[in-house]
Amino acid sequence: MPAAPSIRMGSLKGLTMGTSWTATVIVPASSDLPTLQGVVQAALDRVDQQMSTYKPDSSLNRFNRAPAGSWQVLEPEFFTVLAHALSVARDSEGAYDPTVGPLVNLWGFGPAIPSAMPPSSSSIDAARARVGWQRLRLDTATRRALQPGGVAIDLSAVAKGFGVDEAGRALERAGIASYLVEVGGELRARGRKVDGSPWRVGVERPDAATAAAGAGDIGASVRLVDMSIATSGDYRRFHAGADGRQSHHIDPATGRPVRGDLASVSIVAMDCMQADAWGTAFSVMGVERSLAFARRRHMPVLLVERRGNGLVEHATPQFVAMIQP
User: Fold this and answer.
1) Can you state the percent helix, strand and coil of the chain, rounding each to 5?
2) What is the per-residue pLDDT for 55?
Protein backbone atom coordinates (compact mmCIF):
# COMPACT_ATOMS: atom_id res chain seq x y z
CA MET A 1 0.00 0.00 0.00
CA PRO A 2 1.55 3.38 -1.02
CA ALA A 3 2.62 5.75 1.72
CA ALA A 4 0.52 8.84 2.36
CA PRO A 5 1.91 11.99 0.73
CA SER A 6 3.96 14.20 3.05
CA ILE A 7 2.56 17.40 1.54
CA ARG A 8 -0.79 18.40 0.14
CA MET A 9 -2.67 21.32 -1.37
CA GLY A 10 -5.11 23.09 0.93
CA SER A 11 -7.71 25.78 0.31
CA LEU A 12 -8.57 28.74 2.54
CA LYS A 13 -11.17 31.46 2.04
CA GLY A 14 -12.92 34.37 3.70
CA LEU A 15 -14.22 37.91 3.31
CA THR A 16 -12.40 41.22 3.48
CA MET A 17 -12.57 44.80 2.19
CA GLY A 18 -16.02 44.31 0.69
CA THR A 19 -14.93 41.30 -1.38
CA SER A 20 -13.74 37.71 -0.97
CA TRP A 21 -10.30 36.23 -0.53
CA THR A 22 -8.88 32.77 -1.24
CA ALA A 23 -5.55 31.11 -0.65
CA THR A 24 -4.18 27.88 -2.05
CA VAL A 25 -1.37 26.57 0.13
CA ILE A 26 1.11 23.73 -0.12
CA VAL A 27 1.35 22.34 3.39
CA PRO A 28 2.46 19.26 5.33
CA ALA A 29 -0.24 16.62 5.38
CA SER A 30 -0.76 17.19 9.11
CA SER A 31 -1.25 20.98 8.86
CA ASP A 32 -4.16 22.66 10.64
CA LEU A 33 -5.91 24.59 7.86
CA PRO A 34 -8.38 26.43 10.16
CA THR A 35 -5.43 27.91 12.05
CA LEU A 36 -3.86 29.09 8.79
CA GLN A 37 -7.19 30.57 7.73
CA GLY A 38 -7.25 32.58 10.95
CA VAL A 39 -3.69 33.79 10.31
CA VAL A 40 -4.63 35.13 6.88
CA GLN A 41 -7.90 36.66 8.07
CA ALA A 42 -6.13 38.48 10.91
CA ALA A 43 -3.58 39.97 8.51
CA LEU A 44 -6.29 41.21 6.16
CA ASP A 45 -8.43 42.56 9.00
CA ARG A 46 -5.47 44.58 10.26
CA VAL A 47 -5.01 46.24 6.84
CA ASP A 48 -8.73 46.92 6.53
CA GLN A 49 -8.94 48.45 10.00
CA GLN A 50 -6.09 50.81 9.23
CA MET A 51 -6.87 51.85 5.64
CA SER A 52 -10.59 51.44 5.02
CA THR A 53 -12.45 54.50 3.77
CA TYR A 54 -15.73 52.87 4.92
CA LYS A 55 -14.86 52.31 8.60
CA PRO A 56 -15.34 55.60 10.52
CA ASP A 57 -12.78 54.55 13.13
CA SER A 58 -10.09 53.41 10.68
CA SER A 59 -6.63 54.94 11.04
CA LEU A 60 -7.05 56.53 7.62
CA ASN A 61 -10.29 58.27 8.55
CA ARG A 62 -8.84 59.44 11.84
CA PHE A 63 -5.99 61.04 9.90
CA ASN A 64 -8.46 62.66 7.49
CA ARG A 65 -10.29 64.23 10.47
CA ALA A 66 -7.12 65.40 12.20
CA PRO A 67 -6.62 69.14 12.82
CA ALA A 68 -4.81 71.20 10.20
CA GLY A 69 -1.09 71.43 10.85
CA SER A 70 -0.95 68.36 13.10
CA TRP A 71 1.57 65.54 12.76
CA GLN A 72 -0.01 62.11 13.14
CA VAL A 73 1.86 58.94 14.13
CA LEU A 74 0.87 56.12 11.76
CA GLU A 75 1.04 52.36 12.20
CA PRO A 76 3.94 50.73 10.32
CA GLU A 77 1.63 49.24 7.68
CA PHE A 78 -0.26 52.49 7.07
CA PHE A 79 3.00 54.45 6.84
CA THR A 80 4.50 51.94 4.38
CA VAL A 81 1.50 52.10 2.06
CA LEU A 82 1.25 55.89 2.19
CA ALA A 83 4.97 56.26 1.45
CA HIS A 84 4.63 53.93 -1.55
CA ALA A 85 1.54 55.79 -2.75
CA LEU A 86 3.44 59.08 -2.69
CA SER A 87 6.32 57.47 -4.59
CA VAL A 88 3.95 56.34 -7.36
CA ALA A 89 2.30 59.78 -7.37
CA ARG A 90 5.68 61.38 -7.95
CA ASP A 91 6.81 58.92 -10.64
CA SER A 92 3.47 59.11 -12.48
CA GLU A 93 3.50 62.93 -12.31
CA GLY A 94 0.26 62.93 -10.33
CA ALA A 95 -1.74 60.53 -12.53
CA TYR A 96 -2.13 58.53 -9.33
CA ASP A 97 -2.81 60.69 -6.28
CA PRO A 98 -3.62 59.26 -2.82
CA THR A 99 -5.32 62.53 -1.83
CA VAL A 100 -8.04 62.12 -4.46
CA GLY A 101 -10.59 61.17 -1.76
CA PRO A 102 -12.77 64.31 -2.08
CA LEU A 103 -13.24 63.68 -5.81
CA VAL A 104 -13.91 59.95 -5.32
CA ASN A 105 -16.70 60.80 -2.88
CA LEU A 106 -18.03 63.59 -5.06
CA TRP A 107 -18.53 61.20 -7.97
CA GLY A 108 -20.19 58.51 -5.84
CA PHE A 109 -17.36 55.97 -5.73
CA GLY A 110 -16.64 56.27 -2.01
CA PRO A 111 -18.59 55.91 1.24
CA ALA A 112 -20.21 59.36 0.97
CA ILE A 113 -23.50 59.73 -0.91
CA PRO A 114 -23.16 62.52 -3.49
CA SER A 115 -25.64 65.38 -3.27
CA ALA A 116 -25.94 65.65 -7.05
CA MET A 117 -24.95 63.58 -10.06
CA PRO A 118 -23.21 64.71 -12.10
CA PRO A 119 -21.62 67.18 -9.69
CA SER A 120 -21.56 70.84 -10.59
CA SER A 121 -18.42 72.50 -11.92
CA SER A 122 -18.17 74.55 -8.73
CA SER A 123 -18.32 71.38 -6.60
CA ILE A 124 -15.58 69.78 -8.71
CA ASP A 125 -13.40 72.88 -8.36
CA ALA A 126 -13.93 72.93 -4.59
CA ALA A 127 -12.95 69.24 -4.29
CA ARG A 128 -9.92 69.71 -6.53
CA ALA A 129 -8.69 72.47 -4.24
CA ARG A 130 -8.31 69.84 -1.51
CA VAL A 131 -6.38 67.40 -3.75
CA GLY A 132 -2.62 67.40 -4.16
CA TRP A 133 -0.15 64.72 -3.11
CA GLN A 134 2.60 67.35 -2.75
CA ARG A 135 0.75 68.75 0.29
CA LEU A 136 1.52 65.62 2.31
CA ARG A 137 4.77 65.38 4.24
CA LEU A 138 6.22 62.31 5.93
CA ASP A 139 8.76 62.01 8.72
CA THR A 140 10.35 58.59 8.28
CA ALA A 141 12.32 58.73 11.54
CA THR A 142 9.18 59.16 13.66
CA ARG A 143 6.71 57.48 11.26
CA ARG A 144 4.52 60.57 11.20
CA ALA A 145 2.48 62.28 8.49
CA LEU A 146 1.43 65.92 8.34
CA GLN A 147 -2.26 66.71 7.93
CA PRO A 148 -2.00 70.12 6.24
CA GLY A 149 -5.75 70.67 6.48
CA GLY A 150 -8.58 69.37 4.33
CA VAL A 151 -6.60 66.45 2.90
CA ALA A 152 -8.63 63.24 2.54
CA ILE A 153 -6.42 60.26 1.79
CA ASP A 154 -7.94 57.39 -0.21
CA LEU A 155 -5.71 54.32 -0.49
CA SER A 156 -8.29 52.08 -2.15
CA ALA A 157 -6.06 51.78 -5.22
CA VAL A 158 -3.20 50.25 -3.25
CA ALA A 159 -4.48 48.90 0.11
CA LYS A 160 -6.02 45.76 -1.38
CA GLY A 161 -2.75 44.89 -3.11
CA PHE A 162 -0.90 45.49 0.15
CA GLY A 163 -3.43 43.24 1.88
CA VAL A 164 -2.58 40.46 -0.57
CA ASP A 165 1.10 40.90 0.28
CA GLU A 166 0.42 40.94 4.02
CA ALA A 167 -1.63 37.75 3.76
CA GLY A 168 1.25 36.10 1.95
CA ARG A 169 3.81 37.29 4.47
CA ALA A 170 1.60 36.00 7.29
CA LEU A 171 1.62 32.56 5.66
CA GLU A 172 5.40 32.73 5.30
CA ARG A 173 5.75 33.52 9.02
CA ALA A 174 3.61 30.44 9.66
CA GLY A 175 6.12 28.33 7.72
CA ILE A 176 4.30 28.16 4.37
CA ALA A 177 6.72 28.69 1.48
CA SER A 178 4.41 27.88 -1.45
CA TYR A 179 1.04 29.58 -1.86
CA LEU A 180 -1.25 31.55 -4.14
CA VAL A 181 -3.24 34.32 -2.40
CA GLU A 182 -6.08 36.18 -4.12
CA VAL A 183 -8.16 39.13 -2.92
CA GLY A 184 -10.80 40.48 -5.27
CA GLY A 185 -8.94 39.24 -8.34
CA GLU A 186 -5.45 40.42 -7.33
CA LEU A 187 -2.89 37.71 -6.68
CA ARG A 188 0.48 36.96 -5.10
CA ALA A 189 2.33 33.70 -5.81
CA ARG A 190 5.29 32.22 -4.00
CA GLY A 191 7.01 28.88 -4.45
CA ARG A 192 5.51 26.17 -6.65
CA LYS A 193 2.71 23.63 -6.72
CA VAL A 194 3.03 20.09 -5.35
CA ASP A 195 4.29 18.74 -8.69
CA GLY A 196 6.95 21.44 -8.93
CA SER A 197 5.23 23.40 -11.68
CA PRO A 198 4.76 27.18 -11.37
CA TRP A 199 1.46 28.75 -10.39
CA ARG A 200 -0.65 29.58 -13.42
CA VAL A 201 -3.36 32.24 -13.29
CA GLY A 202 -5.86 33.45 -15.85
CA VAL A 203 -5.74 37.12 -16.81
CA GLU A 204 -9.09 38.86 -16.60
CA ARG A 205 -9.67 40.82 -19.79
CA PRO A 206 -12.79 42.54 -21.03
CA ASP A 207 -14.19 41.59 -24.41
CA ALA A 208 -16.49 43.61 -26.63
CA ALA A 209 -19.60 41.94 -25.17
CA THR A 210 -18.73 41.60 -21.49
CA ALA A 211 -17.14 45.03 -21.19
CA ALA A 212 -20.47 46.60 -22.02
CA ALA A 213 -22.16 44.46 -19.39
CA GLY A 214 -19.60 45.29 -16.72
CA ALA A 215 -18.04 41.83 -16.59
CA GLY A 216 -14.67 40.36 -17.43
CA ASP A 217 -13.52 37.42 -19.49
CA ILE A 218 -10.61 35.11 -18.70
CA GLY A 219 -8.04 35.31 -21.46
CA ALA A 220 -4.57 33.81 -21.61
CA SER A 221 -2.89 32.54 -18.48
CA VAL A 222 0.48 33.60 -17.13
CA ARG A 223 3.11 31.79 -15.10
CA LEU A 224 3.76 33.43 -11.73
CA VAL A 225 7.00 32.49 -10.01
CA ASP A 226 7.46 34.57 -6.86
CA MET A 227 5.50 37.42 -8.45
CA SER A 228 2.15 39.21 -8.14
CA ILE A 229 -0.44 40.42 -10.64
CA ALA A 230 -3.21 43.02 -10.48
CA THR A 231 -5.81 43.93 -13.09
CA SER A 232 -7.59 47.27 -13.17
CA GLY A 233 -10.44 48.03 -15.56
CA ASP A 234 -13.29 50.46 -16.09
CA TYR A 235 -15.69 47.59 -16.83
CA ARG A 236 -15.82 46.48 -13.18
CA ARG A 237 -16.89 49.67 -11.36
CA PHE A 238 -18.57 52.49 -13.21
CA HIS A 239 -21.66 54.67 -13.37
CA ALA A 240 -23.85 54.77 -16.46
CA GLY A 241 -24.83 58.40 -16.95
CA ALA A 242 -26.37 60.54 -19.65
CA ASP A 243 -22.89 61.12 -21.06
CA GLY A 244 -22.08 57.42 -21.13
CA ARG A 245 -19.86 55.26 -18.93
CA GLN A 246 -18.17 57.02 -16.02
CA SER A 247 -15.10 55.14 -14.84
CA HIS A 248 -14.33 54.90 -11.12
CA HIS A 249 -10.83 56.10 -11.99
CA ILE A 250 -10.72 59.84 -11.36
CA ASP A 251 -8.21 62.04 -13.19
CA PRO A 252 -6.81 64.39 -10.52
CA ALA A 253 -5.91 66.91 -13.22
CA THR A 254 -9.52 67.39 -14.34
CA GLY A 255 -11.44 66.23 -11.27
CA ARG A 256 -13.57 64.04 -13.50
CA PRO A 257 -13.80 60.31 -14.30
CA VAL A 258 -11.38 59.08 -16.95
CA ARG A 259 -12.97 59.00 -20.41
CA GLY A 260 -10.28 57.30 -22.44
CA ASP A 261 -9.97 54.20 -24.58
CA LEU A 262 -8.11 52.08 -22.02
CA ALA A 263 -10.45 49.24 -20.98
CA SER A 264 -8.12 47.35 -18.65
CA VAL A 265 -4.55 47.12 -17.36
CA SER A 266 -2.82 43.99 -16.03
CA ILE A 267 0.54 44.45 -14.32
CA VAL A 268 2.97 41.89 -12.93
CA ALA A 269 5.33 43.00 -10.16
CA MET A 270 7.27 41.54 -7.28
CA ASP A 271 4.65 42.72 -4.76
CA CYS A 272 0.94 43.18 -5.34
CA MET A 273 1.05 46.65 -3.76
CA GLN A 274 3.23 47.81 -6.65
CA ALA A 275 1.04 46.26 -9.32
CA ASP A 276 -2.13 47.63 -7.72
CA ALA A 277 -1.01 51.26 -7.59
CA TRP A 278 0.41 51.32 -11.10
CA GLY A 279 -2.79 49.83 -12.48
CA THR A 280 -4.62 52.94 -11.31
CA ALA A 281 -1.90 55.28 -12.57
CA PHE A 282 -1.93 53.71 -16.04
CA SER A 283 -5.73 53.85 -16.17
CA VAL A 284 -5.44 57.62 -15.83
CA MET A 285 -2.38 57.99 -18.08
CA GLY A 286 -4.00 56.27 -21.07
CA VAL A 287 -2.71 53.80 -23.65
CA GLU A 288 0.18 55.59 -25.36
CA ARG A 289 1.68 57.21 -22.29
CA SER A 290 1.34 54.04 -20.20
CA LEU A 291 2.85 51.79 -22.86
CA ALA A 292 5.83 54.10 -23.33
CA PHE A 293 6.35 54.30 -19.56
CA ALA A 294 6.12 50.52 -19.11
CA ARG A 295 8.58 49.88 -21.95
CA ARG A 296 11.12 52.33 -20.52
CA ARG A 297 10.94 50.58 -17.16
CA HIS A 298 10.78 47.04 -18.61
CA MET A 299 7.52 46.36 -16.76
CA PRO A 300 5.38 43.27 -17.57
CA VAL A 301 2.16 45.01 -18.62
CA LEU A 302 -0.90 44.14 -20.72
CA LEU A 303 -3.12 47.03 -21.89
CA VAL A 304 -6.48 46.43 -23.53
CA GLU A 305 -7.64 49.33 -25.69
CA ARG A 306 -11.11 50.00 -27.06
CA ARG A 307 -10.89 50.62 -30.78
CA GLY A 308 -14.04 50.95 -32.84
CA ASN A 309 -16.35 48.06 -31.97
CA GLY A 310 -13.55 45.83 -30.76
CA LEU A 311 -10.60 45.64 -28.40
CA VAL A 312 -6.88 45.67 -29.15
CA GLU A 313 -4.23 44.27 -26.80
CA HIS A 314 -0.81 45.82 -26.20
CA ALA A 315 1.69 43.74 -24.22
CA THR A 316 5.27 44.54 -23.31
CA PRO A 317 7.89 41.86 -24.10
CA GLN A 318 8.23 41.12 -20.38
CA PHE A 319 4.52 40.27 -20.15
CA VAL A 320 4.57 38.15 -23.32
CA ALA A 321 7.40 36.07 -21.84
CA MET A 322 5.17 35.10 -18.92
CA ILE A 323 2.23 33.82 -20.99
CA GLN A 324 1.64 30.10 -20.57
CA PRO A 325 1.95 28.32 -23.95
Assistant:
1) 35, 30, 35
2) 96
